[in-house]
Amino acid sequence: MVRVRRIVRISGRVQGVFFRAWVREQAEGLGLAGWVRNCADGTVEAELEGEEDVVSQMIDRMQSGPPLARVDDLEVEASEPLLARSFTVRH
Known about the structure:
single chain, alpha+beta, 5 strands
């Protein structure tokens, strides 16, 4: 099992639609660590850490997001794992 860390930036209608809470719920359900936050430019940024296949599954889910969201673009950047243990919403 390979542990990976991915930084994901999501653009579209992703703020004010419970996107961060949805990401936290999904990530915790999958056993992922990391964080999610709103950015000043209207995007949402998330750091996902866990087993490679599970991180990929989460990224696939983020392509559509929660019911009120509209995802226009999703960028993924690989990074070295930090061995994070929990998932948080950053403010």
